[in-house]
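Saturday, quiet lab. Running sequence design on the structure tokens for the scaffold JK sent over.
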């Protein structure tokens, strides 16, 4: 299948209209980024300030619903279909009959996708038949993040589905294990880093919370305090996404009010960043550069 790439001129990235943000996901790709719009189209972006500089047509009926970068490939999916853009060509990735995929991630240089039927699928090559990875969880997957040493899916019941490099899955119910210590929490985002995992969400009062683990089974609450102009402050806005920044060895929370909250390895060194860009729902890192997206690109 030949690649359909439209190299149009830079398109102004204006603030979106309506309930959905204009952009709903972003991943690093080549020397820039690929961004997914709420209408199901995928654009290429880069520069400073960032501008849309091309589009990729994956040929998926109903448009693209999720994207992921896996090594040099760009993976896109829509319900029961997945396509991989590799070396300038589109490769249809086979899913079993009746199966669906909602999220995809890089797991040790291979593709892992989370579906809606208590299982994930693993491809060691976009040409291969996927391996089915069953698990037993109450909720539906709302987050997926991977690295060389671990892949973690997050469900809407605050369960963590942990996949080891040998592709064994285990389910960890965060509230069942930690409600006595931290109270009931609603986790909605996950990011796997070089040697740790971060999950974030809100407590029973709607206040933001974040937790860090080295293996995904023992968790410590991450303080969300910081200092501004000599005054002690605390993050007030709820996280909507989390990502790991390899260049700085830090996690970054994207918050509902557009704040980017940085969590370096030093728990006393937290700091907020306030982009003048309206709503943000995601962030992606490519070396020393990053792109945050939502109503516009930042």
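Result came back. Writing it out in full:
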């Amino acid at each position: 299948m030949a690649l359909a790439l439209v190299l149009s001129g830079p398109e102004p990235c204006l603030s979106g209209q309506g309930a959905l943000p204009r952009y709903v996901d972003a991943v690093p790709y080549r020397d820039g980024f690929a961004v997914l719009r709420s209408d199901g189209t995928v654009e290429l972006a880069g520069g400073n300030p960032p501008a849309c500089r091309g589009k990729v047509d994956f040929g998926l009926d109903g448009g693209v619903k999720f994207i992921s970068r896996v090594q040099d490939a760009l993976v896109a999916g829509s319900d029961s279909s997945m396509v991989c853009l590799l070396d300038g060509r589109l490769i249809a990735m086979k899913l079993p009959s009746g199966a669906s995929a909602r999220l995809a991630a890089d797991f040790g240089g291979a593709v892992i996708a989370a579906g809606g039927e208590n299982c994930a699928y693993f491809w060691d090559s976009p040409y291969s038949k996927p391996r089915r990875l069953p698990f037993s969880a109450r909720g539906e997957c709302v987050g997926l993040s991977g690295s060389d040493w671990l892949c973690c899916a997050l469900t809407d019941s605050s369960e963590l589905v942990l996949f080891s490099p040998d592709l064994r899955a285990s389910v960890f119910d965060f509230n069942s294990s930690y409600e006595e210590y931290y109270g009931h929490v609603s986790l909605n985002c996950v990011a796997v880093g070089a040697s740790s995992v971060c999950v974030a969400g809100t407590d029973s009062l709607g206040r933001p919370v974040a937790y860090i683990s080295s293996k995904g089974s023992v968790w410590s609450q991450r303080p969300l305090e910081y200092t501004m102009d000599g005054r002690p402050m605390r993050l007030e806005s709820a996280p909507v996404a989390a990502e790991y920044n390899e260049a700085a060895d830090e996690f970054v929370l994207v918050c509902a009010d557009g704040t980017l909250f940085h969590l370096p390895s030093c728990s006393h060194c937290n700091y907020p960043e306030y982009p003048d860009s309206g709503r943000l729902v995601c962030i992606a890192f490519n070396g020393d550069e990053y792109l945050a997206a939502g109503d516009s690109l930042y």
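Notes for JK: Residues 94 and 129 are 6 Å apart (CA to CA). The longest strand covers residues 185-192. Ask whether to fix the surface positions before the next round.
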